[in-house]
């Protein structure tokens, strides 16, 4: 079944010059990039995006990091797009969880600076797509 997912190529990945590498992996996997935008996230958008993590010790620094510079927001489409992108990304912690061959496993060292975000469910994807790309919100 075709799904949509919201992906962020985070400020660490943009600053390190990995946008092309990450988009290449997405394209080679066969996912369709249906929206793509470089922008610096306003704090309110970042706070809404990560609302479920409010209260965690890393939440303030996560907001500071995600708003610290340009990121790439994208909508991907394809069969099982949510799981397919999370497979490409690897686990949240680039060392403890992500395997070599994944984006985080190949390029990351820290849980926070983990290069990419991908929606974790259909509900999250629709909420996040509506937040980052309001004109693509599901009705
Ligand atoms: P993401 O998949 O975007 O979802 C929540 C983010 O919080 C996660 O990627 C990391 O960037 C960050 N994060 C999760 N766990 C930790 C942690 N233990 N320490 C710092 N940042 C974290």
Automatic annotation (TrEMBL):
ATP binds at residues 10, 58, 86, 92, 104, 114. GO terms for biological process: CTP biosynthetic process; GTP biosynthetic process; UTP biosynthetic process. The active site is at 117 (pros-phosphohistidine intermediate). SUPFAM superfamilies: Nucleoside diphosphate kinase, NDK. It catalyses: a ribonucleoside 5'-diphosphate + ATP = a ribonucleoside 5'-triphosphate + ADP; a 2'-deoxyribonucleoside 5'-diphosphate + ATP = a 2'-deoxyribonucleoside 5'-triphosphate + ADP. InterPro entries: NDK-like_dom (IPR034907), NDK-like_dom_sf (IPR036850), Nucleoside_diP_kinase (IPR001564), Nucleoside_diP_kinase_AS (IPR023005). GO terms for cellular component: cytoplasm. Residues 2-138 form the Nucleoside diphosphate kinase-like domain. Its cofactor is Mg(2+). It holds the Pfam family NDK. Keywords: ATP-binding, Cytoplasm, Kinase, Magnesium, Metal-binding, Nucleotide metabolism, Nucleotide-binding, Phosphoprotein, Transferase. It is found in: Cytoplasm. NCBIfam families: PRK00668.1. This is Nucleoside diphosphate kinase. The gene is ndk.
